[in-house]
Amino acid sequence: MFNELDPKTGCLLISEPFMLDPNFERSVILLCNHDAEGTLGFILNKKVVGCVGDLVKEMATCSFPLHIGGPVAQNELFFIHSRFDLLLSGDEIRENIYFGGDPELLFSLVNQGKIKEDEVKFFLGYSGWQLAQLESEIKVNSWAVQNKFPTALVFEKDTELLWKQAVIGLGAKYAHVANFPQSPSLN
After folding, report:
1. In terms of C-beta density within 10 A (0-12 exposed, 13-18 middle, 19 or more buried), how is residue 121 classed?
2. Under 8 Å CB-to-CB from 103, ≥6 apart: which residues?
3. pTM score, whole prediction
4. pLDDT for 71-125, tens place per residue?
């Protein structure tokens, strides 16, 4: 699987269906930063058992899910959101998708019900690549790159649907992959 990496737009990485690294098996990753120092992104479709309220005392009643952003810095909390109009902070990844911002204000807005579950995603850790590492992985078909996708896909709650829709979004050539079972050996 191969497409051009366009770091200016924010893009999705979709792992090849049978990737051996369990950290990235059937993963969809939103790239948030890609520059001369390396690449940073978050796995969108790997949930942690528990919720944000279990981890953040200021949000004790919040049941929004936590996601494993990747194998790096898994003791740190990160977030993406679509509500710059309320947070007035965060780095724009692409239209209506922002990385980070003011966490205290975010916690308050979530507690007040002004930011909904489909407008923010929380991650423990992130996925990272050193300079040129990701490009090399793309060249050996470990990842497919999707540069055009609806914003709603990033905030999709159903993790299996998110993966399938990302694969289908790669085009007809890859659509059949969306129906591959998670464990082919069990068929």
Report:
1. buried
2. 77, 79
3. 0.91
4. 999 999 999 999 999 999 999 999 999 999 999 999 999 999 999 999 999 999 9
Q: Are 120 and 64 in contact (CB under 8 A)?
A: yes
Please state the rounded mean pLDDT for residues 176-187: 61
Nearest to 100 by CA among 87, 117, 116, 85: 87
- CA nearest 52: which of 92, 127, 106? 106
User: How far apart (Å, rounded) are the C-alpha atoms in residues 118 and 153?
Assistant: 10
Q: Please name the residue that has the structure tokens 């289908």.
A: 168
> How confident is the model over 125-129, as a mean pLDDT?
96
Select 12-186's CATH number: 3.30.1250.10, 3.30.1330.40, 3.40.1740.10, 2.30.110.20: 3.40.1740.10
Please give the distance of CA 146 from its chain centroid, rounded to a whole number: 13
Contact between 80 and 40 under an 8 Å Cβ cutoff? The reply is no
